[in-house]
Design goal:
The structure holds two protein chains of two kinds. Chain A is an alpha+beta fold. In chain A, the strands form six sheets. In chain A, strands 18-17-16-27-26-25-24-23-22-21 form a ten-stranded antiparallel sheet, sandwiched between helices. A nine-stranded mixed sheet of chain A has the order 14-34-33-32-15-28-31-30-29, with helices on both faces. Chain A is elongated and about 120 Å long. Chain B folds into two domains: 43 residues; 245 residues, no CATH class. Chain B contains eleven helices and twelve strands. A four-stranded antiparallel sheet of chain B has the order 3-12-5-10. In chain B, strands 4-11-8-9 form a four-stranded antiparallel sheet. In chain B, strands 1-2 form a two-stranded antiparallel sheet. In chain B, strand 6 and strand 7 form a beta hairpin. The two termini of chain B are 33 Å apart. Chain B: This is Cell cycle control protein. Chain B: InterPro entries: CDC50/LEM3_fam.
Chain lengths: 1138, 370
């Protein structure tokens, strides 16, 4: 079966000129003058990054490429080289720890990859060589080998299918491990190859390896001893991909065309580009500020040091002489090393541990998404999936949501509703008792109780039965329960025929089923002939001559069949816009009415047309198609040209309507997102009317919404040139939506305020391309900015008729607009991949359209409704947590280092550290790291339920609110205040260092220890004050850290450590505790430094569920629901409620 | 103190109907565990700070801190402290001559008379104070070898590199090495009480109990060997450059106070935090009978063997006499700070009370946005 969708991800690299030639079975061919065995890479898969030998250097190199690691390495080296105040251990140990942990993690992952590689590479395969089957290891397969694969085995490399044990020369394959689609796909053998592969003498010419799974062009030359060489075209339907599994087929033979790292699977293995979150950018900005603080501190100290030293007797008093080496050092060099020393002394202001903690928080925090049972979908037995944990907090910052319609807003669970034949409407009655149970309902215009002519009816139904790529699933007893995904419908009206249909698009299944309800059953495809059973229970056979595949550009597909009577017929079905111009115009009007009516009711409509081909016409078409298929270059373009040529002057016979139901809670979710201040854009390939009605059903557009339409239809209204009209409309809308709109008050909620006029904007693909790529003479950039401004002032935007690439274009445009808003794309199909990759956050829905979206997404959820909790609860909490984490980290290191800086003024700028080396090292690793980690994992400043109920809370953290310069300044000022307090508080205490009741005095290490004790307690208690959600873990970690600090200090000071050069802290802590004054000053300083925070907390507006209970729920949903019911007056109301 | 609500969110045991419909196969499926931790539903205590709850805390803090502050202030004020600068900067001060004709070898003595206005009761502690002396300079602080001071034999003969340039002298290792030891304070202070009739008596000064117990008994140790004859133990070493006598003659009369465990030495080795500091020098024990003050009011004379030069770096030398309370030496800072903080808290409490009563109710009503 051919793929319907183009994978746009890798699209566009068709331009390869060179091709490769493969000699099947390594046999030289008569035609080529000299047989040069071409060199290709072997079939070894190497997904691992390292070998044992290069692991250390390569891994270290990659780690130190990170700017933070590099910075710490530099600091460490400076400490090693220059005589610095702190030993290299203080910064080397944490760095070593970080590097080691990362290296172990990466090494382990690589080891797993090695193991997997080994398994794959050593897998035994059977290769035909000189007529014998030889068992080989998979890695020894060479291009040109003929490989035998039996059922349920995976293909060891990319193969061209030569022979299958099935009689119809097909084989079935699942590509579950490649793209996650577990349906069976049919692949075809190369036609007319000989049965005896030993005597097959052929070469294959094909393009160089490229990663697109669904593209392959090649040509096979078959040489027979006494004939002209035959040429066969090869397409993706002949190519069996490495990694796919053979199903339902006993054995196949294929020739290897791509091996090892050149297989499509391996080429697809490359990771996605890294996305960086806004928080990370904030961190980097803050880092820069702190780096400036650090450097200016060092500069100030160095300058003052030399000013101070220039005074008499201060530089080198008799009691403190310099060593000979110091005396000899050149003065400018000394200044420089002094500067470096100060840098090292203050470098703790930018802690290594912050990076570790942030990473850990993200990694561990993402588990809460996978663990959330609310995301579990019983239907597919799966929960949410986190592909990257780097973007957790970005979920709390989304401003624009781009959503796909089909499969995302709607279920993509197609149900055939009605058809319209020759202008008469046939609605399918619910009781399908009679075979010709046509129940004609009254369309608003069609004549009552009338039917089209029987011929037309049957022609239409035959068209439905023939024009598709559905295959019938054989009801093998072992398979009934195995594959139930992807468009498989196993129970049909005829109970005696246990058959299911497999198709890549659910529309087709729905249509075939629809035809079945009207009496025409598709029985299957055998030997290139399609069997259908008509109403009289007779089996009709049609030779399938050509399939003109569906693609999203043409938006239609056709088949050419030959009936038993010898007529050659072309059946075509497709979107109305692509069919109508290609049929006789007099037929259009009758059907257009039905199509439009159906579309407004939210159905997907397809038009069916046919054409009888005369033998001459067919001969031309046949030749054209064959030529195009054999083309090695620009095959797609050539095919397209032939298709367009063939699909002309058809006769329209009817239209179908298929219902696509809304996803569960789609409307509620959309409403919540809008309530949270997000702008929802629907990007769909569907037609405008259908999409519009879906938008109404989802309450994206509401009664009061004024729709601004910018489509081909409105452009053609004026009867003038499109560009002029576009310009005019854009200016008009801009005036309406942007200029006349009252200035938006910051933070004020808009969605329910009735005073403001709401606007919805509709644009279609054709117009969009006019806006994005206008003709050069018009002022091009102006359109774009006008368009953008209008859209930004609309609550909802609908873009219909979008090609996948256009979706990405729109996302990119919004992403790069002013203020660079955070965008989120959600989709389920391969056509959404481009926008999922483009947006800041890409969300895949584990839907029916395969797994491509899920594979390329950052997060995958089973249903659209889960988006609400993902954003409003998880995203909000993650953002608050990580923002607090970042601010807290900078704060705690500022008040850690500030006293050390101030101390320089009192120790002759000699870089004397205030704290002991152990404290310097342990502060960020042990004493203060765990509480903030626990906080950043567990904090719920507002209960989850409350967050879900009040979408507006999301607006409070919008635009990176907690990491703006305001809050940063607050934290910085707090850190400075506390640092000053710690230092000068203790300094005044030390104006008389006799602090013990036995008159003994304290020294400098006691000074530092007192400051440090105050610091650890204050910083931890500050976090305790901020904690709104005290679980036992928080209690354990916060009080545990403090206890650990006390315990450690006793322990550290309690022993003469033989490995230490100086026993600085020996009994310092214990002596400190024996002094009442020290106790008193510690308590006083802790309290005083927390006082501003407590006051601020009291005076600030109280938060949390208790304070908010008084808020009444705002009227947002009630009115619109009623409106919706009145909007869709049809008998089929949208069934989002069930 | 805080308003708190203990919302123990119990695990909701109800499996939604749809989940149950997953059938028997769902038991081994990837369905997430429904544990409190994984669902972020751990029971939690959710304290909220509001004006109403912090208010009593402020009053309590105020009420506790103000008395403590007053207590501290009074205690500090009751401590007798007398300080005299004997550097001899002034030309007419007694030690001016000594401070100018300074040389390491010649001992110069001078005597500074002073009088105490008030008697000093209980034990009196005698400190020497130095100003502008950077004992906390990095080069200085690290210039010591703790393992040598701890009696390590190999460090005795091969001191640490950190001691440079006071490591080796005359090709012999210095014991104790380093700048700190080298600059040991070596003025000798003696105190005479001058009776009104002009005769004077030496006040006994106790030189034990001035260093931390752990320093004296654990951290500092003489090298192993004949404890009675330290001369042999230190025979391969030489005295620090600036010292008059080797380390084993610091207190020849008392083997428990000689060598590295000399308490004057230990006190000096604990480097001060700030450039102006004091160190405990001697203790004047209170009289046994407890009837007369330890130092009655009257005239005294401080006899100084002036050895320690400070004028080269603008330093000052002081002698301080002080009594000691439970909070240590005289320091009004703590008392004032406590009173201030206590008052501020109390004041804030009052302000909060007013706000709470005046605006409290209206606040709640005004909570509905827009």
């Amino acid at each position: 079966m051919l793929r319907r969708r183009i994978n746009l991800l890798f699209g566009g690299d068709e331009k390869r000129v060179d091709s490769r030639t493969i000699y099947v079975g390594h046999r030289p061919c008569p035609a080529t003058e000299a047989f040069i065995p071409p060199k290709f890479c072997d079939n070894r898969i190497v997904s691992s990054k390292y070998t044992i030998w290069n692991f250390l250097p390569k891994n270290l190199f990659e780690q130190f490429r990170r700017i933070a690691n590099f910075y710490f390495l530099i600091i460490f080296l400076v400490q090693v080289i220059v005589d610095t105040p702190t030993s290299p251990v203080t910064s080397g140990l944490p760095l070593f720890f970080v590097i080691t942990v990362t290296a172990i993690k990466q090494g382990y992952e690589d080891w797993l990859r090695h193991k997997a590689d080994y398994e794959v590479n050593k897998y035994p395969v059977i290769v035909l060589e000189d007529g014998r089957s030889i068992r080989k290891e998979s890695e020894k397969i060479k291009v040109g080998d003929i490989v035998e694969v039996v059922e349920d085995e995976t293909f060891p490399c990319d193969l061209i299918l030569l022979q299958s044990t099935r009689d119809d020369d097909t084989c079935f394959v699942t590509t579950a491990s490649l793209d996650g689609e577990s349906n069976h796909k049919t692949h075809y053998t190369v036609p007319d190859t000989e049965k005896d592969l030993q005597s097959l003498n052929a070469t294959i010419e094909c393009e160089q390896p490229q990663p697109d799974l669904y593209k392959f062009v090649g040509r096979m030359h078959i040489y027979k001893t006494d004939q002209e060489p035959a040429v066969r075209s090869l397409g993706p339907e002949n190519l069996l991909l490495k990694g796919a599994t053979l199903k339902n087929t006993k054995k196949i033979y294929g020739v290897a065309v791509y091996t090892g790292m050149e297989t499509k699977m391996a080429l697809n293995y490359q990771g996605k580009s890294q996305k960086r979150s806004a928080v990370e950018k904030s961190i980097n900005a803050f880092l820069l500020v702190y780096l400036c603080i650090l450097i200016s501190k060092a500069v100030v100290c160095t300058t003052l040091k030399y000013v101070w030293q220039s005074q008499d007797g201060q530089d080198e008093p008799w009691y403190n002489e310099k060593t000979q080496k110091e005396k000899d050092t050149y003065v400018y060099l000394k200044m420089f090393t002094d500067f470096l020393s100060f840098m090292v002394l203050f470098n703790f202001i930018i802690p290594v541990s912050m990076y570790v903690t942030v990473e850990m928080q993200k990694f561990l925090g993402s588990f809460f998404i996978t663990w959330d049972k609310d995301f579990f979908d019983p239907e597919i037995q799966e929960g949410a999936l986190v592909n990257t944990s780097d973007l957790n907090e970005e979920l709390g910052q989304v401003e624009y949501v781009f959503t796909d319609k089909t499969g995302t807003l709607t279920q993509n669970n197609m149900e055939y509703i009605e058809c319209c034949i020759d202008g008469f409407q046939y609605r399918n009655s619910d009781s399908m008792s009679e075979l010709d149970g046509f129940c004609v309902t009254d369309g608003p215009v069609s004549k009552l109780q009338q039917k089209a002519g029987r011929d037309k009816e049957e022609l239409f139904l035959r068209a439905l039965c023939l024009c598709h790529t559905v295959q019938v699933k054989e009801a093998g007893p072992d398979e009934i329960d195995s594959d139930q995904v992807d468009g498989l419908v196993s129970e049909l009206s005829q109970p005696d025929e246990q058959r299911g249909f497999i198709a890549s698009s659910p529309d087709e299944v729905a249509l075939v089923k629809g035809a079945m309800k009207h009496g025409f059953t598709f029985l299957g495809l055998e030997n290139k002939s399609m069997k259908i059973r008509n109403r009289e229970n007779n089996v009709e056979l049609y030779d399938l001559l050509h399939v003109l595949n569906f693609d999203p550009v043409r938006r239609r597909m056709s088949v050419i069949v030959r009936s038993k009577s010898g007529e050659t017929l072309l059946f075509c079905k497709g979107a109305d816009s692509s069919i109508f111009p290609r049929v006789r115009q007099e037929e259009v009007d009758r059907i257009r009415m039905h199509v439009e009516r159906n579309a407004t009711e939210g159905y997907r409509t397809l038009c069916v047309a046919y054409k009888q081909l005369s033998p001459e016409e067919f001969a031309v078409a046949d030749a054209g198609l064959r030529d195009a298929r054999l083309a090695l270059q620009d095959r797609e373009e050539k095919l397209m040209a032939v298709y367009n040529q063939v699909e002309t002057s058809m006769s329209l016979i009817g239209a179908t309507a298929v219902e696509d139901r809304l996803q569960e809670e789609a409307a509620e979710t959309m409403e919540a997102l809008q309530g949270a201040g997000m702008k929802v854009w629907v990007l769909t390939g569907d037609k405008m009317e259908t999409a519009k009605s879906t938008c109404y059903a989802c309450r994206l557009f509401q009664r009061g919404t004024e729709l601004l339409e910018l489509t081909v239809r409105t452009l053609e209204d004026g009867g003038r040139k499109r560009e002029e009209r576009l310009h005019e409309l854009l200016l008009d809308y801009h005036k309406k939506a942007v200029q006349d709109a009252p200035p938006v008050k910051a933070g004020v909620t808009r969605s329910w305020s009735t005073a403001n006029q709401e606007y919805g904007f509709i644009i279609d693909g054709a117009t969009l391309s006019l806006v994005m790529n206008p003709s050069p003479d018009t002022n091009s950039s102006r359109y774009k900015s006008l368009f953008l401004q209008i859209c930004q002032n609309c609550t909802a935007v609908l873009c219909c008729r979008m090609a996948p690439l256009q979706k990405a274009q729109i996302v990119k445009m919004v992403k790069n607009s002013k203020g660079s808003p955070i965008t989120l794309s959600i989709g389920d199909g391969a056509n959404d991949v481009s926008m999922i990759l483009e947006a800041h956050v890409g969300i895949g829905i584990k839907g029916k359209e395969g797994r491509q979206a899920v594979r390329n997404s950052d997060y995958a959820i089973p249903k659209l409704k889960h988006l609400k909790k993902l954003l409003l609860a998880h995203g909000h909490l993650y953002y608050v947590r990580i923002a607090h984490l970042v601010q807290y980290f900078f704060y705690k290191n500022l008040c850690f280092i500030l006293p050390q800086f101030l101390y320089q003024f009192f120790c002759g700028y000699s870089q004397q550290p205030l704290y002991d080396a152990a404290y310097l090292t342990m502060y960020n690793i042990c004493f203060t790291s765990m509480p903030i980690l626990a906080f950043s994992l567990l904090e719920q400043h507002i209960a989850i339920e409350y967050l879900l109920d009040n979408a507006t809370l999301y607006r409070e953290i919008a635009k990176n609110a907690m990491l703006k310069w305001g809050p940063f300044l607050y934290w910085t000022v707090l850190g400075i205040f506390q640092g000053l307090l710690f230092f000068f508080g203790v300094k005044y205490l030390f104006s008389n260092p006799a602090l013990q009741d036995n008159g003994q005095v304290f020294g400098n290490w006691s000074y530092g220890t007192i400051v440090f004790t105050v610091l650890v307690f204050t910083v931890t208690l500050k976090l305790a004050l901020d904690t709104r959600h005290w679980t036992w873990i928080n209690h354990f970690v916060i009080w545990g850290s403090l206890a650990f600090y006390v315990f450690f200090s006793f322990f550290w000071g309690g022993i003469i450590w033989p490995f230490l050069k100086q026993q600085r802290l020996y009994f310092v802590f214990a002596n400190m505790l024996s002094s009442v004054s020290a106790w008193l000053v510690i308590i006083l300083l802790i309290l005083l430094s927390l006082l501003p925070d407590i006051l601020l907390m009291v005076f600030r507006k109280p938060r949390g569920p208790h304070a908010r209970q008084m808020k009444r729920r705002l009227p947002s949903s009630g009115t619109s629901t009623i409106f919706m019911l009145s909007q869709t007056t049809s008998t089929h109301s949208f069934s989002w409620s069930d | 103190m805080m308003a708190s609500s203990y919302t123990a969110k119990e695990e909701d045991g109800h499996h939604s109907g749809s989940a149950a419909a997953g059938g028997p196969g769902s038991s081994k499926s990837k369905k997430p565990d429904n544990t409190a931790f994984k669902q972020q539903r751990l029971p939690a205590w959710q304290p909220i700070l509001t004006a109403g709850t912090v208010l009593p805390a402020f009053f309590v803090i105020g009420l506790i801190f103000i008395p403590i502050g007053i207590g501290l202030f009074v205690t500090s004020n009751n401590i007798r402290e007398f300080e005299i600068d004997y550097t001899g900067v002034d030309t007419n001060s007694p030690c001016n001559r000594c401070s100018q004709t300074y040389s390491w070898n010649i001992s110069c003595t001078c005597s500074v008379p002073f009088s105490l206005e008030q008697p000093f009761e209980s034990n009196v502690f005698m400190y020497y104070g130095l100003s502008n002396f950077y004992q906390n300079h990095r080069r200085y602080v690290k210039s010591r070898d703790d393992s040598q001071l701890n009696g390590d034999k190999s460090s005795l003969t091969n001191p640490s590199k950190e001691c440079e340039p006071y490591r080796i002298s005359e090709k012999k290792p210095i014991a104790p090495c380093g700048a700190i030891a080298n600059s040991l304070f070596n003025d000798t202070l003696e105190l005479y009480y001058i009776y009104p009739n002009g005769s004077r008596t030496l006040i006994p000064l106790v030189k034990k109990g001035i260093a931390w117990w752990t320093d004296k008994h654990v951290k500092f140790r003489n090298p192993p060997g004949n404890n009675d004859n330290l001369t042999i133990t230190f025979q391969d070493t030489t005295k620090p450059v600036n010292w008059h006598k080797p380390v084993y003659e610091l207190d020849p009369n008392d083997p428990d106070n000689n060598g590295f465990i000399n308490e004057d030495f230990i006190v000096w080795m604990r480097t001060a935090a700030l450039p102006t500091f004091r160190k405990l020098y001697r203790i004047i024990q209170k009289n046994k009978d407890n009837m007369t003050p330890t130092l009655p009011r009257g005239n005294y004379s401080l006899e100084i063997a002036y050895n320690y030069p400070v004028r080269s770096f603008d330093g000052r030398k002081r002698m301080i006499l002080s009594t000691i309370s439970w909070m240590g030496g005289k320091n009004p800072f703590l008392g004032i700070a406590y009173i201030t903080v206590g008052s501020v808290c109390f004041f804030l409490g009052v302000v909060l009370l007013i706000i709470h009563h005046k605006y409290g109710n209206r606040n709640n009503n005004a909570d509905i946005p827009n």
